[in-house]
# Entry
Amino acid sequence: MGQIFHLNKKNLIIKKMKKHLIIIIPVILLAILIFPGCEKQLDSKVYDQVTENNFFQTPQQVNATLAQAYTPMTGIQMPPGGSFILNEVSTDELIVPTRGNDWYDGGKWQRYWTHTPLYTDADINIAWSSYASGTTACNFVLNLLNSLPPANKPSNTAQITAEIKVLRAYYLLGLMDLFGNIPLVTDFNTVPSKVVQSTPSAVYAFLESELLTNVPLLQAPSAANYGHMTKYGGYMVLAHLYLNAQVYTGTAEWTKALSAADTVINSGAYSLQPNYLDNFIVANQGSLENIFVIPFNNNYIGGNNWEAMTLHYSNMYTYNLTGQPDNGFCAPTAFYRSFTATDTRTKMWELGQQYSSSGAILTDLGTGLLCIISPYVLQLSNPADSFRLAGARSNKYAPQPGTNGMQSNSGVVYRLGEAYLIKAEAELRLGDASDALIAVNAIRARAEVPAWGLSDLTLPNLLAERGREMAWENVRRDDLIRFEVADKVPYFTGARVPGKSQDPDQHTFLFPIPQAQMNTNPNLKQNTGY
# Structure
């Protein structure tokens, strides 16, 4: 995306609604466009067209329009989405080492890890563009709804409007969280080159108002609105806004964060899935726990490349994939070791001798070494053949047999397990350790690890538990920043991970404004330190 908050309006209608609406450009217009010097009058036959009198008349048309606002989600939450990369590779729970000539990519993975990103790094622009295009798509849909004659508006216009406004709040929160001062664009007709930045405090105030007004208007979850922003997805957006309020505004809002999390927990709409990893299986539509998800499909909706980005090359035979994974993302040694042996969540990691689906011992394709994945990844780069096997790989999102890197598992944005952890953290910070203990022990019981006592419930321990429960779920960077700002818990300690140290001036808590966006809009000012 080369411009800030810019979408082609004609393509938005044609591309996303073509299954339900056929728009034929009149032949005379086509002739004028291609042959501007041609003056001969041509007749055209219009077989079908969209007008204000026949638009938004069926549920299919409504859903096709709303789909535009959700499409940018596919580039945010899962690898190789830019937001996922920035929120995880910059932390202590995911590392992308350079293995010989593999995974160097101009040094960007090492820059993210060591907190020295460049404003020209592609993933930074991808992250900005995904959130910005999502905001624009929401503004487009809202503009379209507002432009319809009253007689042609859907009967549930108020609910649709609220849904899109809450989804827009999700996009704006993600953009502000990564980049700080951002354009706060709420009108589709805004000229991109004239947009100025708003402070995090101003964006926070707008988002709080929007969410408090619109979340109560959203639908309750049902099979019919799977993948939509429902009421409790909206409360999770609000919980995240309040959870990090001190980072955005300087004022903590733990009571409000607790209230939002409690609303989700007490709704009765969700329960903890008995088997943690069942939240992430290929057919995870039946999860009892997942609140807001991105529906992926390996044939039609791309964006979930989990198996490709992390699994070892030889794991194609473990999971009967049709192509080799890329042998990239892995867990740093210290992060993997934070799990105890009895923790059932350790099943998300691939370690040790790897086998084919038939039980045959696998070797490392290309070197002939036994494919024994080691938990030890103590360097950012190493050309040795054995380094190809360094680092625990994640199968948290179950690989899908018969695929070549693109999976159909729905991407989990919010789930009940995190609501419990938000509740526990807010209560602990508010001084109610007893209730906090009940919440966190519900998570630990599911993981089959010993319950904590009051002496175990400390902020550093809770941060570590969030890491184990929410590993690679696009929240770790926020967690680390929040604990650093509030409690002086070291953001990173060099003893835990290779090549990383604390950020003394904290300027890298934000990423640089992408150069591509600054080229488009001269009003944008670069973040401090870049």
